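Q: Here's a chain of 387 amino acids. Please give me its 3D structure as tokens.
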Amino acid sequence: MIRDQETLDLLLEGIRRFVRDELVPAEKQVDETDEIPARIVQGLKDLGLCGMTVPEAYGGLGLTMEEEVLAVIELCQTSPVFRSLSGTTVGIGSQGILIDGTEEQKQEFLPRLARGEILASFALTEPEAGSDAASLRTTARRDGDHYVIDGTKRFITNAPYAGIFTVMARTDPAVKGAGGISAFIVDAGTPGISFGQRDRKMGQKGAHTCDVIFDGARVPASRIIGGPGNAGQGFRTAMKVLDKGRIHIAAVCVGVAERMLADTLRYAMERKQFGQPIADFQLVQAMLANGKTELYAARAMLLDTARLRDQGKNVSTEAACCKLFASEMCGRVADNAVQIFGGAGYTADSGIERFYRDVRLFRIFEGTTQIQQVVIARNMVRAAARG
């Protein structure tokens, strides 16, 4: 489903050059300061990366899923925190509007998101609702032409500088589970919204998360994604968003794993023990070969799923398979990289220690490995029952 190979090649080359010249040299600085330099933020916007998935009619690049995957793999040949800045807007932040929003909502928000004028965050997770998203407690009480939102969202990526939030809240307290949840587009500057302190994380320094607290935040009923008549459909919107987001995150895992494996191979060819490069030793070769094999499998799985989605197929199972396998693969590549680097891999100077910390998150966010297993197995049972 690549529409124009020449144009795509130009985009991918532009991303490679930006990664090589701007992002890789800034990796250590960002990890140490927990801040992404303003010039890099602007560079991501100038490349159009905040609007990768926004249709051209709304000012974006309008990439297909396959094209998006290839672009993300290139962008993630560096620290994944850079992708997080634009990728949350590209993925889960704006996809609800793109998939289920009204035409008026698309016209109002998508062009601004595509330009990077505003960033979007996805506010689903709560202190007591993570993997069990249908149990969320944030409420949205109808009050005339508005809803009043109360509750706390946790671990919200880009929250400190988001322009809008896609917020999941319970509009019908009488309906337990998924059926009473609606999705809202909420301006970050709405009175009644406050923020907790930035989370201190194991890795992903420079990608900021924090609590978002709603205390009587009034939101027009027209800001329900899909319009007021779409109340109660928010959980379905969230699941559509996460299906696509899981493909995106799998691409992140593939890109970062490619970078780690390349760095590890280079080190193994240069580092000598017993008078020869450690790449000559078969036990080191086994770790390198396992990484290459799993990486190839993850990339093939990812591209196949992206093409199926571009064909309009339901890829809920395949997306979960991609996220599960690619995130676990990325963790194993990181672990073996530290092992091959040895003591150097445990110190900050090599960069491998940073990647090891950064990629641990991939097996947790946007659905843990265990949730992917549940999704896959349930879909298998449903498919078998249908015959």
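Q: Can you summarize the key feature?
A: The CA atoms of residues 49 and 86 lie 6 Å apart.
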